[in-house]
């Protein structure tokens, strides 16, 4: 018989990770089940990478409260866990008189939501701040508290901290059934059966499927896809703020923003899709994104594109997050429908989940010897003196693996031996940026495969590009094993 | 203080260092980021190298080894696994290596020879899913020729760059089925000889004016949707066909790697994406030279060697016998039919007998004339039976003719209707 845990969290995207992080402050026995071979494998790695200020959600909604609270919490967490975070501020552009009225209502909503530092700027001040904006812009709402973050590192950092504080993470475990048992739940996966007093459903785009395993259907995830461009660092200073257009009923529109790595991100559009893991980009979608972005910033040089991606928002029919106990299932909590501003709100959602669990009787004794910090070496951000010291202490930091991003062997090895070790080429990239630059792993890809194989003691033939089974090499050449 | 620091030990860096040593420089260092010298030649195990320079046919590693062998005799220092992080206009070179740590080295001259990189899927924004099995032809070449691993069984090659053509043949020899090579332009972007020897000889179709409009597959590539393109290179609806394949190799262009150059504030030519160079391969920064694919993408290594010897001589002359700055800089400009010229600037008093000018045409030309003009005056013309963008062209302009020019020189191509 399995031991009975306190809490099982299903899904290790940003919401699952934030919940685990919040729970790990206490002496609680937590198990996270993640169906992929790495954390942050779904929407949490494929989004706009924005921490929204919070003027957009309807006042009084969960979204509004959790957005504003999450924006503050995330800043602290990024600081504590050494996650790239830049408080660059955002601008919502108005192109018409109607848009100017929208700005006023956003400003008012923001005030009601408790967002500080909002101001409507006239064109002259705006163009001083952002000279590359279209001259058709008639004004903009400046939100000083908006920020950019590295979303997968944010997720990973919280998950790693939870693991360092005793949380168990089981990867490649897909939940197949959930049963109510005395004093809790039994959660069956493709690998094992687990038991816990409480279950947290943080399954993102699959949250309805998980919910329906134990409770009557209450909501349906309507996957809503958005496509993006990531441009080279040569375009990374095209704008300094996150540049939005006025929101529509479909969402916050297409944005142009710097990234914490110094690139430029452009996207998304909105496309309803049948499939929850439809991360395919389309010619039509990419053209649409490009055209919409030109409206804000006409000079973007798309020839500097390094990568396209698309992500699926876990939207529902309900215009709010769905957070609470599932009908007739005491101790089973949904954290569902976490669309935008989900990344921003995640940290606050995690804290709210802890409160809900406590309300059902989870004892919250503070953890002793709590790990609160996370060390992370980023060679290319160090000073010359720091680099010298680092290399003399560990020569692996004197050997560059990824030339575009100046990522060292030391960093790649650290990624492979971190609390949640990378198992794939993309996993290494998400942890230390090897292969994320302009050559997209053309040079370092074969090296990274070799290092993963050596460090994990496996054959290069078994090293995946990303998800389990996505191997790159298919066999030896003729005489290649000689 | 080094006389010369060369960045990169590929064919360009090797030839530049060797020539500089033969021309009198004593203390020379080559910093190479890889584990061995030779650069990309090490993975080019096919033959065809050296026909012009050595008048014989060598493989890539053989071609490189002829130069590598000379380093020791000439007392040229080679630092491997060494990454140059920064160079400054004052000729300070920041380099790291696991054994020497972080060093800031000073040099009387620098030769930039970092080569080029391949354009990626992102650069051409191919829509679809992002499974394993999409890789650049050069990465595939490294896996197959250096690591001994196969990258796929049913392969589609997108782009007809030379590495793509070479890899179409290589993978066929390894037992893979190469379904087709697709080229968005109406002509091959690689050498004609490679089209014949790597595709035609193996019955691999070359589909001109075609491109991939969607990649499909979950974990591994499963299908590629291919369409014909119109004159504006836009896919034509209704021409789609689906190939079942597990691998897509990309050979869609090479880009000089000039991040160091750019950071040092050296002027870059937007046409070549390499440094603007003078007749002796000197960049806009005094004492810093550049040669090989970091300046412009060459078709044959033989021409890289020739050009790098010029840079090596330039560096030696600069260190041993620095001439005073001169004002007479003549600019070479691209006229009709020409996509770039190298060098972009010539100081006539430094030209001995002739000045070689490399260029590429921007479309196919049958019988034509390469015309050199100064203002309204035609100062020289060279006949060509055929020119294609995939092949680098050059003309040798006699100094006597250059001396007649006033102001900038324009190089253009005209159909020869005579």
How would you portray this structure in words?
The complex is a heterodimer of chains A (about 475) and B (about 425). Chain A has three domains: about 1-85 and about 145-220 and about 315-375, FAD/NAD(P)-binding domain (3-Layer(bba) Sandwich), CATH 3.50.50; about 90-145 and about 220-310, D-Amino Acid Oxidase, subunit A, domain 2 (D-Amino Acid Oxidase, Chain A, domain 2, 2-Layer Sandwich); about 380-460, Arc Repressor Mutant, subunit A (Orthogonal Bundle), CATH 1.10.10. Chain A is about 30% helix and about 20% strand. Chain A has helices spanning about 15-25, 60-80, 95-115, 125-130, 150-165, 205-210, 285-295, 340-360, 385-395, 410-415, 425-430, 445-455; strands at about 5-10, 30-35, 50, 85, 90-95, 120, 140-145, 145-150, 170, 175-180, 185-190, 195-200, 220-230, 240-245, 255-260, 265, 270, 305-315, 320-325, 330-335, 400, 405-410, 475. Chain A is globular and about 65 Å long. By secondary structure, chain B is α/β, with parallel strands linked by helices. Chain B has three domains: about 1-120 and about 255-320, FAD/NAD(P)-binding domain, CATH 3.50.50; about 120-250, 3-Layer(bba) Sandwich (FAD/NAD(P)-binding domain), CATH 3.50.50.60; about 330-420, Immunoglobulin-like (Sandwich). In chain B, strands 1, 2, 5, 6, 7, 8 and 22 form a seven-stranded mixed sheet that branches. In chain B, a hairpin with a 3-residue loop joins strand 7 (about 90-95) and strand 8. Chains A and B meet through helix 7, strand 18, helix 9, helix 12 and strand 23 of A and strand 7, strand 8, helix 3, helix 4 and strand 11 of B. Strand 23 of chain A pairs antiparallel with strand 11 (about 150) of chain B, so a sheet runs across the interface.
């Amino acid at each position: 018989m399995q031991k009975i845990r306190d809490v099982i969290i299903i899904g290790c995207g940003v919401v699952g990770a934030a919940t685990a992080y919040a729970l790990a402050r206490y002496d609680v026995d937590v198990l996270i089940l993640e169906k992929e071979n790495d954390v942050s494998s779904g929407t949490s790695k494929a989004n706009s990478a924005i921490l929204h200020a919070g003027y957009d959600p309807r006042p009084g909604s969960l979204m509004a409260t959790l957005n504003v609270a999450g924006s503050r919490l995330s800043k602290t967490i990024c600081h504590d866990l050494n996650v790239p975070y830049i408080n660059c501020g955002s601008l919502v552009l108005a192109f018409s008189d109607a848009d100017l009225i929208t700005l006023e209502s956003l400003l008012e909503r923001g005030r009601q939501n408790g967002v500080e530092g909002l101001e409507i700027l006239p064109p002259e001040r705006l163009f001083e701040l952002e000279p590359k904006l279209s001259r058709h812009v008639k004004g903009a709402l400046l939100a000083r508290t908006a920020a950019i973050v590295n979303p997968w590192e944010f997720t990973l950092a919280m998950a790693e901290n939870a693991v360092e504080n005793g949380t168990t993470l089981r990867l490649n475990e897909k939940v197949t059934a959930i049963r109510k048992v005395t004093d809790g739940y039994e959660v069956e996966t493709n690998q094992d059966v687990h038991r816990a007093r409480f279950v947290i459903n943080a399954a993102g785009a699959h949250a309805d499927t998980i919910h329906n395993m134990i409770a009557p259907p209450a909501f349906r995830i309507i996957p809503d896809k958005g496509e993006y461009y990531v441009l080279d660092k040569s375009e990374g200073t095209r704008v300094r703020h996150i540049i939005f257009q006025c929101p529509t009923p479909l969402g916050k529109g297409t944005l142009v923003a710097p990234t914490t790595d110094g690139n430029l991100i452009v996207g998304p559009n909105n496309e309803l899709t049948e499939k929850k893991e439809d991360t395919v980009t389309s010619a039509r979608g990419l053209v649409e994104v490009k055209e919409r972005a030109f409206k804000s910033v006409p000079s973007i040089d798309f020839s500097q594109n390094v990568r396209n991606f698309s992500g699926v928002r876990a939207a529902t029919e309900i215009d709010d997050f769905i957070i609470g106990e599932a009908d007739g299932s005491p101790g089973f909590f949904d954290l569902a429908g976490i669309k935008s501003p989900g990344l921003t709100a995640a940290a606050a959602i995690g804290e709210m989940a802890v409160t809900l669990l406590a309300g059902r009787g989870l004892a919250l004794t503070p953890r002793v010897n709590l790990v609160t910090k996370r060390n992370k070496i980023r060679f290319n951000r160090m000073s010359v003196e720091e680099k010298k010291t680092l290399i003399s202490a560990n020569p692996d930091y004197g050997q560059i693996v990824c030339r575009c991003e100046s990522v060292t062997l030391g960093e790649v090895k650290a990624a492979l031996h971190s609390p949640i070790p990378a198992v794939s080429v993309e996993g290494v990239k998400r942890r230390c940026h090897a292969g994320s630059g302009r050559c997209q792993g053309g040079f370092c890809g074969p090296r990274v495969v070799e290092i993963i194989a050596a460090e994990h003691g496996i054959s290069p033939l078994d090293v995946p590009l990303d998800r389990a089974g996505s191997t790159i090499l298919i066999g030896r050449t003729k005489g290649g094993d000689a | 203080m080094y006389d010369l620091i060369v960045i990169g030990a590929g064919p360009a860096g090797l030839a530049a260092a060797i020539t500089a040593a033969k021309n009198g420089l004593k203390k020379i260092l080559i910093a190479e980021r890889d584990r061995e010298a030779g650069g990309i030649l090490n993975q080019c195990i096919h033959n065809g190298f050296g026909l012009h320079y050595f008048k014989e046919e060598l493989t890539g590693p053989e071609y490189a080894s002829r130069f590598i062998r000379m380093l020791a005799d000439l007392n040229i220092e080679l630092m491997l696994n060494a990454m140059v992080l920064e160079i400054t206009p004052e000729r300070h070179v920041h380099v790291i290596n696991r054994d020497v740590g972080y060093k800031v080295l000073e040099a009387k001259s620098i030769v930039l020879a970092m080569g080029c990189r391949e354009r990626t899927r992102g650069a051409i924004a191919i829509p679809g899913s992002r499974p394993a099995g999409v890789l650049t032809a050069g990465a595939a070449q490294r896996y197959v020729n250096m690591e001994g691993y196969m990258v796929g069984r049913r392969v589609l090659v997108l782009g007809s760059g030379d590495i793509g053509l070479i890899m179409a043949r290589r993978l066929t020899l390894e037992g893979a089925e190469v379904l087709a090579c697709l080229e968005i332009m109406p002509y091959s972007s690689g050498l004609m000889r490679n089209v014949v020897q790597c595709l035609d000889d193996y019955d691999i179709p070359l589909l001109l004016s075609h491109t991939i409009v969607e990649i499909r597959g979950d974990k591994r590539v499963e299908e590629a949707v291919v369409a014909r393109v119109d004159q504006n290179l836009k896919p034509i609806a209704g021409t789609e066909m689906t190939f079942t394949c597990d691998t897509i190799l990309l050979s869609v262009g090479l880009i000089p790697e000039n991040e160091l150059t750019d950071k040092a504030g050296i002027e870059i030519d937007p046409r070549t994406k390499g440094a603007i160079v003078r007749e002796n391969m000197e960049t806009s920064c005094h004492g810093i030279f550049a040669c090989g694919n970091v300046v412009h993408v060459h078709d044959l290594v033989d021409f890289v060697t020739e050009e790098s010897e010029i840079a090596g001589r330039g560096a030696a002359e600069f260190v041993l016998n620095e001439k005073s700055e001169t004002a007479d800089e003549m600019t070479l400009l691209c006229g009709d039919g020409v996509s770039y010229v190298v060098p972009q600037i010539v100081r006539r008093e430094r030209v001995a007998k002739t000045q070689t000018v490399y260029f590429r045409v921007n479309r196919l030309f049958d019988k034509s004339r390469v015309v050199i003009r100064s203002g309204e005056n035609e100062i020289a013309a060279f006949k060509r039976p055929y020119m294609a963008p995939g092949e680098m062209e050059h003309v040798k302009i006699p100094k006597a003719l250059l001396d007649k020019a006033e102001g900038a020189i324009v190089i253009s191509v005209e159909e020869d209707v005579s």
